[in-house]
């Protein structure tokens, strides 16, 4: 069986037609779901790119080996799904960005890797003193669509499929859209009418303090609701462009006949606020559903068609699922579950909880974005789009404190070391607007989730290597012991 891992960046799970969004322009993903299996409640293990990717390629939670930052990718001594496939005879082709592997890990993990194309975003239309300058809402991309980075990388994958590959292959497509800035080529930039959008999640008094800090630091609190509606409409347009690229890829699979023995997996690394709560982008210690829930669809040869798994799953289950489909045994301890039974039509586990984490500790200044010894010129420039983010983390390190989340079908608990904890009844409050943490009426629920969180941390605190070290003394120089 061949594999295509279609991995857009920052695509939240609710912004998909088949997941219920009335305006999401996703006909190709919706059709793929009708032909395969859709996981309605798939949650990532971290709300930031690199930590999430390290998790879904290993089956490890970020804390297991310290993959909690943008700066710590998978190293040569660590496992990953692509390496497992390559070592078992697969041709592994990579087209797109890298937020996953350290430089020394490519040779053993990938047959070839490249990123094609040029720009992807239009210019920022706002002057530096404008409150909207740091809102990420940009003008449309005006270059040739063939030079758009995501288009060029998907075209490279199409060219590979049309070349007639003779070995089992895995195509990994880590795309950039719909990651902000919010900007898309025409006509996608203006595809969705902001006035027709459902109501955005409002600014709430029950949310953590960093929500307000972000709004004030980026001057988002000075912008009208119409700005955020426009921003989210463009975000949906970026998703529509990404869906078009998926359609090109699926058409090439069908035209070459490779669809008969190729599993297609579509998923993202995390979501985006996209104007909800008066916020943009994401945050390392934020664990709202619009950041942790992502699309996840698998169409596998011989699998069920139109099956929906409504029970929660974790994105890193992707790793265990691909290995089982490829008949490759993992060579490391991991915590992912294979979803192959669900691909055959089985229900999920209604008792399962999903877990995520984020943030940094005060004794880890080398982890914070905006630190002086990494991209110093970038972070020191007040006109750079990420300047407020780095400055806020440096000035208020408690705003990115360590955080962990446990989420069941009914409730979500977020524990933070600064005391800004959250508890939501998702059945009564799916938009997460009323924080029940410390509410006597939810004391039993809170206590049960805290015990579950403690058990999870204890069970997953580390992993023991499979290869033992000899315990005998080393031989003496010039002779044996």
Précis, in short:
With 481 residues, the chain is an alpha/beta fold.
- Taken together, the total number of domains comes to 3
CATH topology of the largest domain: Alkaline Phosphatase, subunit A
Radius of gyration: 22 Å
State the order of secondary-structure elements, H for helix, E for strand. EHEHHEHEHEHHEHEEEHHEHHEEEH
| CATH homologous superfamily designation of the largest domain | Alkaline Phosphatase, subunit A
By helix and strand content, what is the structural category? alpha/beta
Question: How much is the average pLDDT?
Answer: 95
Cα(first) to Cα(last) distance is 52 Å
The number of helical runs is 13
Strand content: 5-15%
Extended strand count? 13
Overview of this protein structure:
This protein has 481 residues and is an alpha/beta fold. It folds into three domains: 2-351, Alkaline Phosphatase, subunit A, CATH 3.40.720; 360-400, no CATH class; 404-460, no CATH class. 27% of the residues lie in helices and 14% in strands. It is built from 13 helices and 13 strands. It has helices at 27-35, 49-56, 81-87, 106-109, 149-162, 209-217, 225-256, 289-292, 317-325, 340-343, 376-379, 387-395, 443-459, and strands spanning 2-7, 37-43, 91-95, 112-114, 169-174, 262-267, 293-294, 296-299, 307-314, 354-358, 403-407, 411-416, 422-425. The strands form two sheets. Strands 1, 2, 3, 4, 5, 6, 7, 8 and 9 form a nine-stranded mixed sheet that branches. A four-stranded antiparallel sheet has the order 10-11-12-13, covered by helices on one side. Strand 12 (411-416) and strand 13 form a beta hairpin. The longest helix has 32 residues, at 225-256. The chain is globular and about 65 Å long. 50% of the residues are buried. The model has no long low-confidence stretch (mean pLDDT 95).
């Amino acid at each position: 069986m061949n594999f295509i891992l279609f991995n857009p960046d920052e695509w939240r799970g609710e912004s998909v037609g088949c997941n219920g969004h009335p305006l999401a322009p996703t006909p190709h993903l919706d059709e793929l779901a009708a032909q395969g299996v859709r996981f309605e409640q798939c949650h990532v293990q971290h709300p930031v790119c690199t930590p999430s990717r390290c998790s879904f390629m290993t089956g490890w939670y970020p804390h297991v080996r310290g993959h909690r930052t943008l700066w710590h990718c998978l190293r040569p001594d660590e496992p990953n799904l692509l390496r497992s496939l390559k070592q078992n005879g697969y041709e592994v082709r990579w087209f797109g960005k890298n937020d996953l592997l350290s430089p020394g890990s490519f040779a053993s993990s990938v047959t070839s890797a490249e990123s094609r194309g040029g720009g992807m975003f239009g210019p920022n239309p706002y002057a530096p003193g404008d409150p909207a300058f740091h809102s990420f809402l940009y003008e449309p991309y005006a270059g040739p669509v063939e030079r758009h980075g995501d288009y060029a990388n998907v075209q490279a994958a199409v060219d590979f499929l049309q070349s007639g590959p003779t070995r089992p292959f895995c195509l990994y497509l880590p795309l950039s859209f719909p990651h902000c800035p919010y900007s898309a080529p025409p006509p996608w930039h203006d595809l969705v009418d902001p006035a027709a959008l459902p109501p955005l999640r409002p600014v709430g008094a029950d949310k953590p303090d960093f929500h307000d800090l972000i709004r004030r630091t980026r001057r988002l609190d000075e912008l009208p609701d119409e700005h955020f509606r426009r921003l989210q409409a463009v975000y949906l347009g970026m998703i529509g462009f990404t869906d078009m690229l998926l359609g090109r890829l699926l058409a090439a699979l069908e035209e070459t006949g490779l669809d008969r023995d190729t599993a297609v997996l579509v998923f993202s690394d995390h979501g985006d606020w996209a104007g909800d709560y008066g916020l943009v982008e994401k945050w390392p210690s934020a664990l709202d559903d619009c950041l942790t829930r992502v699309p996840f669809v698998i169409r596998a040869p011989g699998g069920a068609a139109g099956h929906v798994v409504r029970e929660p799953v974790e994105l890193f289950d992707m790793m265990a699922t691909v290995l089982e489909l490829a008949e490759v045994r993992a060579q490391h301890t991991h915590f992912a579950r294979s979803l192959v039974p669900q691909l055959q039509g089985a229900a999920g586990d209604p008792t399962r909880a999903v877990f995520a984490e984020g943030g940094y500790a005060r004794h880890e200044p080398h982890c914070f974005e905006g630190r002086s010894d990494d991209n110093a010129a970038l972070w020191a420039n007040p006109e750079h789009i990420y300047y407020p983010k780095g400055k806020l983390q440096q000035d208020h390190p408690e705003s990115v404190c360590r955080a962990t989340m446990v989420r069941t079908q009914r409730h979500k608990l977020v524990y933070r070391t600064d005391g800004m904890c959250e508890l939501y009844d998702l059945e009564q409050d799916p938009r997460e607007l009323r924080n029940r943490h410390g509410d006597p009426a939810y004391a039993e629920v809170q206590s049960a989730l805290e015990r579950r969180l403690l058990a999870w941390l204890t069970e997953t605190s580390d992993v023991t290597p499979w290869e033992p070290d000899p315990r005998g003394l080393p031989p003496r120089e010039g002779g044996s012991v």
